[in-house]
Amino acid sequence: EEAGAEEVAPMRRVISAPKDSAPQVNSACLTLVQDGDRQMVVSVADTQNLHDPTKKKIYYNVKYDDLHEPLAGPAHPFRSDGVARGQRNHATGHVETAYMDKFTFEEQYSTFMTHGYGAEPGGNGFVGNVEALAENGADTVFSMNNAKRRKVREMVLAEVAAEDDGERPDYSAWAPARDAIKPLLTGDLTEEAKEFVTWHAARREANLRARGKLRDADGNKITDAMVVAQEEDEEGAGPKGDRSFFHGKEAKNYIGESWITPPKDRKKENDHTFIPKRCIHTWSGHTKGVQAIRFFPNHGHLLLSAGLDSKLKIWDVHGNGKCMRTYLGHEKAIKDIQWVANGERFISSSWDKKIKLWDTETGQVITTLTSGKIAYAVRGHPDADKQNILMAGQSDKKILQYDMNTGDVVQEYDQHLGAVNSVTFCDEGRRFVTSSDDKSLRVWEYGIPVVMKYIADPTMHSMPTVAASPNGNWLACQSLDNQIMIYSTKDRFRLNKKKRFTGHSNAGYACQVGFSPDMRFIMSGDADGKLHFWDWKSQKIFKTLKCHDKVVIGCEWHPLEQSKVATCSWDGTIKYWD
C-alpha cells in the first residue's frame, strides 16, 4: 500500500512555437500601390512630395505648386559640395534664373564698388561693409543728395592732399589741366618716313581732286589739269604719285654690284623635284591680301609681290628674308605683274586702269600706259630681241600690243566676247593663247590679229589662269568647275581627255597653276587655303598642304631650288615651303 501510495507526477504537454518558412522582409518605409492592373511595392517617399525628380512615374495626385517648386533635398553623403548630381544644373550647384533690370544692376554694382556694400540679389537685406552701410543710411550712389556728394568730394580731396608729397603729378578728377602732349613734327621723322608722308599726302590730294572736293581760296574746284600746268611751270617738278623706298643696308656692295645682281654661288641643285613638307619662312608686309608673286627670272634670289593695298614689294629669298624695296605709284589694288629684260625691269597692272614699267634697281617709273580700261593680264614677249613688246588682256574684250619704248599701241586683237583673263605665249613666242569670260580659248599668231584656232564647247567653263609647261608641249588651264584641263600645243591645241586633275575647290577664284621644273608634278591653290600637288602621270593627288587661312591665289616653283615653293594668299602673307 505504501508503494501504491506514492504520488504519480502529472504529465505536461509541450507545445513548440510555430515556424514561418517565408523569407524575412524589411517592410519599413514601403507601401503597396496600384499601378494599372497590378500592385507594386514602392517606397513611401514616392507617394509623397519627397520623390526623386528623375523618376518617370508619380504614385500620388501631385499638386500644381509642388511641380513648379525649386529642387530641394538632403545633402549628398559622398560629394564634397553636398549637392546631389540629379539636383545640379551647374558645375557648382543649382542656378535659378532671376530678372534684374539694367539700371538696378548698375546702381548696386557702382554702390558696391564705391562704398563696399550693396543689396542682396534675393532682396533679403544687404551684403558687404556694415559700417559704411550704417554711415550712409543704405543710400546708393544714384540716390545721394548734393550734400552727401560734397562731403564725399571733400573726403577724397583730403586723402589726396594727405598722400601728396609734392613730387608726383595729380591725375584726379579735380586736378588742374595737364600740358598737351607735344605733337610729332616732320623734322623728327626719318628720311624714308618723310618721303612716305609726302607721298601719302599727294595721293590723298589727288583723290579729293578726283571727287571734286578740293577747292582753292576763291571756292573754285582744283582739277588735275591745273595741277599739271602748275608743275610744268615749276623747275624740277616730277611725278608726285610715283615713289620707291629702299629698305636694304646698301644699294651696292663693296665691289660695286647692284643689290639685284644674282649671287654667283647659287646653282641648280638637282634635276629631281620633291614635294615640300614644311613652311620655312613667312613674309608679312602687305596690309591687305597678296594678289600675285613672281620669282626673279632664272635665279629666284628675289621675290616680287603685288598687293591689294596698291603696293609692290621685292623680298630677299636667300639672305635675311626681309623686304628690299617698296614701289608706290598705283592708286588701287594691283592685278598682275611680270618680269621683263631678265629682271632689270618689271610690269604692273592695276585696277586704276594703268600699266607701269618699273626700273627694278632704282624704283623709278620708266613708262606709264593706259587705254582707259583695266588690264587683267600683262605679259612681255619671251624673245630677247622683243623685250619692248607688252601684251595686255583688257576688260573691254581686247588684247593690246604695246611698244614700251614709244608707249604706242602697235596691234589690237579683238575677237573675244568677254573680258580677257590671261595671255600665254607658246611655240617659242610665235603664238599666244588667250582665255576669256566668254568661256573660250583663242590661239593667235603673234602680230596677226586673226584667230588661228577657236576652242569652245557648251560644257566648258571660264578659265581665268593658264600656265605653259617647262617643255612647252602642254597648257594647264584652271577651269572654274573645280578641275584643271590640259591642252596640247603640238597637236593642234587639242584637249587631252586622259589628263584631268580634280579634287580641289577653286570655283570663283583665279587660282594660279604651276608645273614642277621636271614635269613630275602640277600644283594649284584652292579657296580653302590649301595647296594641292598632283602626279602628272597618274593624275592623282600626291599631297595637300594647308598653307593659308584664305584662298591661295598664287603659287610659284623656285627656278633653281626645285623642291621649294612660294605661295601667296588674300590673308596678306607670303610663305616659303621646303
Summarize this entry quickly:
The protein has helices spanning 64-67, 102-115, 130-136, 146-163, 191-210, 224-233; strands at residues 30-35, 38-43, 117-119, 126-128, 243-246, 279-283, 290-295, 302-307, 311-316, 323-328, 334-340, 345-350, 355-359, 365-369, 375-380, 389-394, 399-403, 408-413, 420-426, 431-436, 440-445, 451-456, 465-468, 474-479, 483-488, 495-502, 513-515, 521-525, 530-535, 541-546, 552-557, 565-569, 574-577.
Could you explain the architecture of this structure?
The chain is extended. It is an alpha+beta fold and 578 residues long. The protein has a five-stranded antiparallel β-sheet, covered by helices on one side. A four-stranded antiparallel β-sheet has the order 6-33-32-31, with no helix packed on it. The chain contains six helices and 33 strands.
* Fraction in beta strands: 25-35%
Most strands sheet: 5 strands, antiparallel
Overall pLDDT level: 82
Number of strands: 33
Alpha-beta content class: alpha+beta
Q: Within the largest sheet, what's the order of strands?
A: 5-10-9-8-7
What would the principal axes of the Cα set say about the shape? extended
